[in-house]
Amino acid sequence: MRYLQENNGLKVRAITGTRSILLAFDADRDTRNSLRGFSIRRTEYLEKSGGETVTSMKWLQSSKVFRTVEPKPKEMVNGRLKIFRTDKHPIQKFFWSDYGAEPSTDYQYEIFPAYGPVTNLQLDQHRMIALKIRTEDEDDGKHGIWFNRGAIASQHYAREFGNVPPTEDEVLDLNNFKTRWLSRGLLEACLAYIKAAKKEEWLHACFYEFTYQPIIDAFDDALKRGVNVRIIYHATKANTKAIGTRLSGTDVLMRRTRPTVPHNKFIVHSSKSGKPLAVWTGSTNITMSGFLGQSNLGHLFRDPALAERYKKYWDLLSQNLSGAPVKKETKIISPQPREVVEPGSLTPIFCARDDLAMLFWYGNRIVDARDLAMFTVAFTVSPLLIPALAQKRDCLRLLMMESRPPAELIRAFHKDGRDPMLVTSYGAVLGKKKITITLPNRKRSTRIIDVKKYALGEWFWREEYTRQRGKVFFIHTKYLMIDPLSDDPLICTGSANFSANSLQNNDENMVLIRGDIRVADIYLTEFLRLHEHFYFRDVANGQAGNGKDAEGAFLEEVKDWTADNFLQGTYLNARREMFFRNAPSSWGEQAENRDPNESAAMAQQHALEGKRKAAEKRRISKKG
């Protein structure tokens, strides 16, 4: 679902996901002259029973306004919030997304360049572009993909729910509006997958955290209706307490006790005869925060061959082995891939593994990217991936993290000067910042504090946390995208955190997906949804102080707002260009030029160097 249209100096490219629609704009010099912004009108086509089609037309909402027209946009009128539309307050960006779309739905977008005085805008009909598009199905019979909201710290949540955390009753009520808004279809899809298993069929699951009652109940219901349920779970007190007396029966529950972090989250569905049919995987732990808090995804593969390999992996883990026996078998079930996986292939990677070859493999793919690499990291970036990310070249690299990058990572990225093609966003909250303090017992603790004299608070709603404890609150997804805008995208997705510990010590699973444009479009639109969400908050917080940030709440009325988007060597220019340029070649062509086993050789060399350094350290110690 990719669209491109031009009209009299204006270009619009649209890419549709399931619930997000991306619109990118480009304009020639004449079109940009005195341009106030873009006004967007959306028509939604809804098909009722009986074949009748109805339409809903509206101007899309604005988040910023002209100060001359609305000096106090947060001011209430008759007890109600003001709503601003792009016909009066246009979008001053060359990249914009509609996050209010529904899956499998037809839409028309009319994009008008706006000119004239801000009090009486004129919409240019001569340059208007109308795009008729359709959003993706959540499940096309091959791939089912669901992303939760992952943005409790948002203007919508603050405005609609008053920053009040969901109550225990609300998060257990699957029909509660707040719960459904936060889930965004992820919880419902996982429950539907479990409920689809029929009597005498099989569900083999493997979970790290297993405490969310609606999912536990769904497995218990499946067991009671005659489904053969088998669940490997991390043997923690929290998991055991949450399960309670449910899921009772011979061999239903298997405690995983050997590795410190048995980090899997997958479910294999098999027929009555035991033939694997499909597998659900992704980043989502079976917890309230997994479905309704931190950003997560569920990916359903309806591929028997892939599901069979997951079932073999499940069989291995059911023996509760650890160390060398597991590493030996995982390399048999999922061998180290060559530098180029086959087009159209689904390649699983299971852990623990006996080397770090996959980290070098991921790094090589980042270097091979010709146009765009996108990467989510829950914690920090592995030192083995920093050279690949930090290599200066004409390829945009977008990195999304849970917390602000540590100082050593920033230094590594900026060693040879700041690179505008490498952009990092993280889980920032408007008007708040994290600080680390040293307690009297010398232990260090993280605190969340308000930014003093935060002028944007006069125009934007305060965004609060709804969960105070836990290491990961915002970014919990684990995926890497290479050239997702091309005709040959590569998506690496699963449970692993792209770290040495994840590869060599944890139970983990990943899938390498090559050449599926539909999958790439869904992941791309969701990545950019959160990247832009947090990038804006980071920039706004960075500019905060003594009222100087107030300008950020308003549209530009005097200066040429388009100029920065056409300034060579800047992120805004690169972001605009990436939707309208053709890469010089594909990542696959670059990878073909490598030795097929290069990553394995790099891992072996790294291990030998590590042994050499350790021996040298021991020698110096003895000599001393």
From TrEMBL:
Family designation: Belongs to the phospholipase D family.
InterPro entries tied to this protein: PLD-like_dom, PLD_domain, PLipase_D/transphosphatidylase
Region described as Disordered: spans on this chain: 586-624
Keyword Lipid metabolism: yes
Subcellular location: Secreted
Catalysed reaction equations from the record: a 1,2-diacyl-sn-glycero-3-phosphocholine + H2O = a 1,2-diacyl-sn-glycero-3-phosphate + choline + H(+)
Molecular-function GO term, any one: phospholipase D activity
Protein name from the UniProt record: Phospholipase D
Lyase among keywords: no
Record function comment: Could be a virulence factor.
Biased composition (Basic residues): 614-624
Any GO BP: phosphorus metabolic process
Lineage, broadest ranks: Bacteria, Pseudomonadati, Pseudomonadota, Alphaproteobacteria, Hyphomicrobiales
Keywords carried by this UniProt record: Hydrolase, Lipid degradation, Lipid metabolism, Secreted
GO cellular component: extracellular region
Pfam families per record: PLDc_2 (PF13091)
Domain PLD phosphodiesterase: 471-502
PROSITE patterns to which the protein is assigned, alphabetical: PLD
Gene source species: Rhizobium leguminosarum
Main location: secreted
E.C. designation(s): 3.1.4.4
